[in-house]
Amino acid sequence: MATTTEEAQYSLPFPVAAALVYGDIGPAEVSPPRLTDPRVTELQQRTTLYDDADFSARFPAERWARVRIVLTDGRAFVSEPARARGNPENPLADDDLRRKYFAYAEPVLGGARAARIEQAVDALLTDTAALRALQDDLLEPAT
User: Fold this and answer.
1) Average pLDDT score over the chain
2) With 115 labelled, which of 56, 70, 89, 132 sits at a CA distance of 20 to 30 A?
3) Residue ranges of the domains in the chain?
4) What pLDDT shows up at residue 9?
5) What DSSP string runs through the chain?
6) What is the gyration radius of the CA atoms in the chain, in angstroms?
7) 76-134 pLDDT, tens per residue?
8) How high is the pLDDT of residue 75?
9) Torsion angle defined by CA atoms of residues 111, 22, 26 and 10, in that order, rounded to the nearest 10 degrees
10) For 38-51, what is each residue's pLDDT tens digit?
11) 108-to-14, 24, 120, 139 alpha-carbon distances in Å
């Protein structure tokens, strides 16, 4: 059972439970108060991990998983086997990567600064001033 941010980041039951409760797993979900949400704790306790020999044989080169959820009324839902997204062999689409960037950057940097950083990164190959603009925005302390 994950009780600290570090444990939550390396736990499998915690992110599954947090995603079921909150619809997402990110910095807010691995930090108090969500870290100790009784609903997440209860779902973690109800989680059972099973080894799949085929998936384990592919690890660490590939990371596969399947989820089976059984509701209190007995209905069960099973996912198709899925590979972890965001790795070089299964990268996020550009739009997904941008959404993830803004979800994490905007709360810390603000929308305007996050957008300037995105624009500078996009321009690195075509605009010689882009690197300096990027450095300026990256090195400016967050407010």
Assistant:
1) 92
2) 89
3) 1-48, 50-83, 94-139
4) 86
5) ---SHHHHHT-SHHHHHHHHHHS--STTTTSTTGGG-HHHHHHHHT------HHHHHHTTT--EE--EEE-TTS-EEEPPPEEPSSBTTBPPPHHHHHHHHHHHHHHHH-HHHHHHHHHHHHHTTT-TTHHHHHHHHHHSPP-
6) 19
7) 999 999 998 888 888 999 999 999 999 999 998 999 999 999 999 999 999 999 999 99
8) 97
9) 180
10) 999 999 999 999 99
11) 25, 18, 18, 13
pTM of the model as a whole: 0.73
Q: How far is CA 131 from the centre of its chain?
A: 28
Q: Which two tokens stand for residue 46?
A: 């109800």
And the tokens for 110?
A: 């603000």
CB 63 within 8 A of CB 84: yes
8 Å CB contact between 83 and 117: no
The band of 17, judged by pLDDT with boundaries at 50, 70 and 90, is very high
